[in-house]
Amino acid sequence: MTAGKRLRRRDLLPEQDTREVSLHYVIAVLFFLAALSALIALASNRAASGWSREIRAEVTVQVRPTGLESGSVAAARAAEVLAGVPGVKEAAAIEPERAKALIKPWLGDAVLEDLPLPNLVEVRLDEAKPAKATALSEALSEKEIDATIDDHSTWLQDIETSALIIRLISLGIFLLIASAAAAVVGFATRAGLMARANIVEVLSLCGATDTFIAGRFQFRFARMAAISGLLGGVAAGLVMVVIKLTGSSQSLLLALPFSWLDLLVLLPCPLLAALIAAGTARIVTLKMLGKS
């Protein structure tokens, strides 16, 4: 028991080892990438959720005039009918000039001159209890208004599918980085054991158990990985802060709407790094000592 305490006071492994500087760097980079992928996944999911909410809250209605009725009159009449449907927050006919402005980036001025513009009605739905497309269609049919309703369900499905793919990719990246970190720690543990094979042999002859020796390597690499994980998490957080504060690219901020609360996801980085390193070091050490 006294020998065990003496061994614990004078650690088997030195406090500092210049050979492990590169290992610190590699683990820090791995957890920087893992933390950054987590932040991007959160922001992408938030963006997809926001787009889905906006699409669910909007419906576009194309009105076709009948008889001698003009397109603008038919659209105004359809907007008035739709505004009275329960679950509709607002309905308004889109002015021809605004319709031209929406189409212009795609077709240009030359084509617009000869192009018949559609008569559109923009409908905003109540987010709490949105009206169904069938209810809108029935209301228009009762007033004998010929119209086609587009609830953007195709776009919504594409966005939700993309969000799911982003989540799966982020999970895959995290698992890949975690396995890479475990492999790096495992290699370093093997190298450390081989470099100190004579010390390990003497300790075994003195009665030190495999569990005790494994505990030394486990604590050493867990502490090292915790520091590296902290540095990687801080670096990822700084990148997010710079992007959010500078706002250098509005398109980037639109695609990745970071939130300050996202920084909370970085808190477990040191603990997670330590757990991966400790578990890997313990398994590798016990396995190697068992074979010797």
Automatic annotation (TrEMBL):
This is Cell division protein FtsX. The keyword Transferase does not apply. InterPro entries: FtsX (IPR004513). One of its GO terms (cellular component) is cell division site. The chain crosses the membrane at residues 21-43, 164-188, 221-243, 263-284. PANTHER family: CELL DIVISION PROTEIN FTSX (PTHR47755). GO terms for biological process: cell division. It comes from the Bacteria. Keywords: Cell cycle, Cell division, Membrane, Transmembrane, Transmembrane helix. The keyword Cell cycle applies.
